[in-house]
Design goal:
Tetracycline Repressor, domain 2, mainly alpha, about 75% helix
Length: about 190
């Protein structure tokens, strides 16, 4: 696609891909320029505060997609187990079967960690609260539901790291298969 026809959203998607690949510090303006096909002046036109604005836009795009496609699966009238299975399926899609890094993960390291810690911490707490609410709806005690929700987020993030380190999506896919049980406990066979 010619650079002149890129929308801001398309530019953000390309920036997001660069951040996922190189991290915040590894995504130099040269790499971001190469990823978008835009010169530095054009990047600054879209993002006046430079790389920090680009990272914020990338996080915003992820947040919007994640809310509409992943978190929305938790807000239905289906059973908790079915909602968690759907949630896990959308995680599989978003994380490319466990081989794509989590932007929140790469933004917790180095300079980005200092810049975005409050924002990222808020997102993690919100995710854990949503997962805990699903567990509570299934009859799990509030305190235990919060612990299980935290364990579920740790399982997601940990399985992504282990999968990338082993160059195998097996750890992630096994976590996905067992995701409802992480929050709800062992489930009866269907």
């Amino acid at each position: 696609m010619p650079v002149a026809t890129l929308t801001r959203d398309e530019v953000v998607e390309r920036i997001l891909a660069a951040f996922r690949r190189y991290g915040y510090e590894g995504s130099s303006l040269s790499r971001l320029s190469e990823a978008t096909g835009l010169g530095r002046s054009s990047l600054y036109h879209y993002f006046p505060n430079g790389k920090e604005d680009m990272a914020s836009a990338a996080m915003g795009a992820v947040g919007t997609w994640f809310t509409h496609h992943v978190l929305s699966t938790l807000n239905s009238h289906e059973t908790s187990a079915i909602r968690l299975q759907r949630f896990a399926g959308k995680l599989t899609e978003y994380y490319a079967n466990g081989m794509a890094p989590c932007l929140m993960d790469v933004f917790t390291i180095g300079e980005a960690g200092s810049l975005f810690q409050q924002h990222l911490g808020g997102r993690m707490r919100a995710l854990m609260a949503l997962l805990a609410a699903v567990a509570e709806e299934a009859g799990i005690d509030k305190v235990e539901a919060a612990v299980r929700a935290e364990n579920a987020v740790v399982a997601i993030q940990g399985s992504l790291i282990v999968s990338r380190a082993l160059d195998s999506n097996g750890p992630f896919l096994r976590m996905i298969e067992n995701f409802p049980a992480i929050l709800l406990g062992p489930q009866p066979a269907e």
